[in-house]
Amino acid sequence: MAVAGLGVRFGSGVVALGRVDLEFAPGAFTVLLGPSGAGKSTLLRCLNGLATPTAGHVLGPDGTPIARRLRAHRRETGMVFQQHQLIGRLSAMENVLIGLLGQRGGWRALMPASRAERERALDALDRVGLLDRALTRADALSGGQQQRVGIARALVQRPRLMLADEPVASLDPVTAAKVLDLLARICREDGITAIVSLHQVDFARRYADRIVALAAGAVVFDGPPERLAQDDIARIYGSSPTAAVSEEEYA
Amino acid sequence: MSRHAAILAADASAGRRHMAMVAAVLAVAVAALAATGFFDAERFADAWPAVRQISSEMFPPDFSRWQSWLKPLADTLAMSIAGTALAVVFSLPLALLAAVNTAPNVAVQQLARLLLSFLRSVPEIIMGILFVAAVGFGALPGVLALGLHSVGMVGKFYAEAIEHTDPRPAEAARAAGAGPLQIIVSAILPQVLPQLADITLYRWEYHFRASAVLGIVGAGGIGFELIAALRLMSYDQVSGILLAILACVVAVDATGAALRRRLR
Question: Taking CB atoms and an 8 Å limit, are B7 and A119 in contact across chains?
Answer without folding.
Answer: no
